Amino acid sequence: MFHVQGAGEAMAAAHALSLPVEAYGNDPNIEMIWAMKAYQHAEVYFNLISSVDPKFLKLTKVDDQIYAEFRKSFGDLRIDVLDPEKLKSEPAKAKWRPFCMQFDGVVEDFNYGTLLRLDCTKDYTEENTIFVTRIQFFAIETARNREGYNNAVYSHAMETKSVAAERGISA
């Protein structure tokens, strides 16, 4: 896990993230800040779907639009266990690009890098995680929530809490 050490580093990181990407080149410190931010987003999201029934989650103000456009463009995409080729290959990128761009100005930070689980029944691990744009994350996770695929995470978390409560352990 990554940690920003103090207020000075936090302010420097916030300033760095506000600059245009062209200002950096391949600065490893900036890459580390982006990785930290993506990891924190993933951790918060997984805790959320572990605590709240995913069918009730609203990820953005335009979930209905994102979901409708996603299923219109990617109606046959298997979302329970994603194939990275369906996200990262050149033909996939050509199909995803127009989908993503329609949310420029609609969804804040639509093109930020975000971590996505390949198998929605499992946690974020190195083997189960892929780097995607935020709008791809919102599209796939909104579909997983609405179509019941993320129920496995929530159900497992509730079972774990129930067993822990029976044993007098806080989970």
TrEMBL record:
Polysaccharide biosynthesis domain mapped to chain residues: 30-154
Domain of life (superkingdom): Eukaryota
Any GO CC annotation of this UniProt entry: cytoplasm
UniProt xrefs under InterPro entries: PBDC1-like_dom_sf, PBDC1_metazoa/fungi, Polysacc_synth_dom
Pfam families according to UniProt: PBDC1 (PF04669)
Source organism of the structure: Gopherus agassizii
Designated name of the protein: Polysaccharide biosynthesis domain-containing protein
Lineage of the organism: Eukaryota, Metazoa, Chordata, Craniata, Vertebrata
